[in-house]
Amino acid sequence: MRIKTILLFWLSxxxxxxxxxxxxxxxxxxxxxxxxxNAAGATxxxxxxxxxxxxSNRNTGNTTGEGLVITPPDVNENLTSAETAFxxxxxxxxxxxxxxxxxxxxxxxxxxxxxxxxASISGLKADxxxxxxxxxxxxxxxxxxxxTYGTDAKRLNIGIANNAVLLQAxxxxxxxxxxxxxxxxxxNWKQTKVKGNRAVIEFDKxxxxxxxxxxxxxxxxxxxxxxxxxxxxxMTAANxxxxxxxxxxxxxx
Amino acid sequence: MKKLFLLSIIxxxxxAVFSQEFAKQVTTARSAYAxxxxxxxxxxxxxxxxxxxxxxxxxxxxILPTKMEDQxxxxxxxxxMATSGFIGTSIHREYGTGDKMISLDLITNSPLIGTFNAxxxxxxxxxxxxQKVIKIDGYKxxxxxxxxxxxxxxxxxxLPLHNNLITFKAPGYTQxxxxxxxxxxxATQIAKMLQ
Lengths: 253, 195
Fold this sequence. Notes:
The complex is a heterodimer of chains A (253) and B (195). Chain A has helices at 2-17, 19-39, 75-87, 91-116, 167-175, 231-238, 243-250; strands spanning 120-121, 124-125, 132-135, 143-150, 155-162, 189-194, 197-204, 208-215, 219-226. Chain A is an alpha+beta fold and 253 residues long. Among the domains of chain A are: 70-116, no CATH class; 119-176 and 188-252, Protein Transport Mog1p, Chain A (3-Layer(aba) Sandwich). Chain B contains six helices and nine strands; from the N terminus they run ααβββββααββββαα.
């Protein structure tokens, strides 16, 4: 029974960690439902009804719309709401407001980190249209920041995860000297240093170089170098990031 | 009567301490934010969340039943522990002592538990010989056999409420008794407080 419970928890974790997989699963379920409906003789979802004028535009694809206005939560406003809710004993509302305020602050931290990154690295220009800052404002996943340099021909992806509880374990793993790489004729994993920070560099023929650098207690910086010729080229690119400034912005020592 | 009065005073004093701490953290968060020290501001907010979780935990303990079957609540053993993120806050209540000690544990705001609800709806996992899905106060829950004694098994109930999980253990009682006791847990009220 205990094993089953543990299994269920890991299953839960897997669902949480891989939203992309969950979406894939949902799509499969949706496809199966559509197949079942079509097999039962219903009108296929993609075929517009010509007899019912009221529903004729039901399946028309969207062709316009400005999207959503970017409105990060107002930190001061949410702190005031939290204070008021707490005083009146409405604790769940207070909790929500504090989480919103944290979300506002974390998004600002993320954008500051992106701003601190260079406009180009090793001749690869930053593709700021790919910049991403995401936060769940508390625990588990924390704040994630992404930046891409270059094009499909040669690319450097930079990802930063901050304030995620699981990273404490990751950092312990990386910073513990007891974990030594095993070597054989084809070494694909080894420990290294980036600007004085301990790191692990990996190479895979299909995905290229991956360099993971734990920052402080709860942050992890990951570089992915696609079509980089050598380890040295990858390390030179990695060293162009101002890691100290990023640590400072994230509140890491 | 005297004990009740003392408990009320202690409860009021505890609330006042939490309020003061919360107000202090709000001030810190505001001033750090105004000074552009975003991480310090965020840290103060994390402290605020912990304060809120502690207060919510105490409030939840107040609305739990004072008695389960023939066992009185051991309120002196009540526990609330607020941790950061991953695990959430844990709330513990015991009823009675010895072999038939009943316990109620509540883990709140754990992102891991959110998907437990989804698992409950998977029939082959949820309904086996050792466990079955029941409803408590309108919420789906699982009652399951535990322990190695096949002649007289013990039962426990797991009740997920959004991102919270209540585990109710009552060794030495029958399945029907355990379900009956679990049904006295004010799940709707707890869910509202924890949402």
